[in-house]
Amino acid sequence: MKYFEVYEDGKRIDAYLSEKLEDTSRVAIQRLLANDKILVNGKKVKPSYKVQQGDTIQVEEEIPVESSLKAQNIPLDIIYEDDDIIVVNKPKGMVVHPANGNPDGTLVNAIMAICKDSLSGIGGEIRPGIVHRLDKDTSGIIIIAKNDKTHIHLSEQIKAHKVKKTYIALVRGIVKENEATINMPIGRSEKDRKKMAVTKKGKEAITHFKVLERYDKYTLLKVNIETGRTHQIRVHLSQIGYPIVGDEIYSNGKNEWNIKGQCLHAKSLEFTHPTTGETMYLEAKLPEYFENILKDLDKRKRM
């Protein structure tokens, strides 16, 4: 339990405590407030409450719970690693975190074997700090935080749109525009709760794309996202009539190369290192199946 005496007026309590509790994110503080773990003068308050001189704030900190997840020695393509972060090139078909239907064999299980006891405990559970996610059948670069301070720093960069994520996507159809922006809200589909959809009730979602190459019946795109909604790129591109090759949810999944899973690859990340302050730019090479498809398309184009 921690106690704070307030000597200033006017600052929101979540902002005030995020300065006092350096290893706790603002989101975590808001969660503590919602769970009555933070009291002001013995009473529950909202995150919007503005502190006043003379207030006494009581904070019941979260105690990390040992994870029941098991470490598994699964080979990973490690792009970069230091004391704070580990960056890997996730293969298509690998789930990031255990869930129903995928209890093990995930990226988290593999990371636990590599990082041992050096893991983030954000969210009240001792586990690898998955700062952002990739769909099961999306390959590419993903960053994991090894400690809470790093996790908080990276999460705040993502929230402030300071992390540049670049994807490569092969879509069906010939895209006419050389570059464009898709700004359509995304939320849970009302027709199929397992799917996401463009809906007026959804959250803001912004996707930028640029044509890299046009082929017969296909287009290769470079895609950047400002927001990180579930299935965002897949939903947006399908919505405008250019579904990603192999996407089994937002297209029919059929393709002439008989691949399972979409041709969507997280190529690069640009962010500020949480400890050194250095600008980091890291890339993940395209998987072999994706390279082979592009070689096939290039060959046809030359014929």
Describe this structure as you would to a colleague:
With 303 residues, the chain is an alpha+beta fold. The strands form four sheets. Strands 6, 7, 9, 10, 11, 12, 15, 16, 17 and 18 form a ten-stranded mixed β-sheet that branches. A four-stranded antiparallel β-sheet has the order 1-4-2-3. Strands 5-8 form a two-stranded parallel sheet. Helices cover 20% and strands 29% of the residues. The mean pLDDT is 88. The chain has three domains: 61 residues, Structural Genomics Hypothetical 15.5 Kd Protein In mrcA-pckA Intergenic Region, Chain A, CATH 3.10.290.10; 98 residues, Pseudouridine synthase (2-Layer Sandwich); 143 residues, Pseudouridine synthase (2-Layer Sandwich), CATH 3.30.2350.
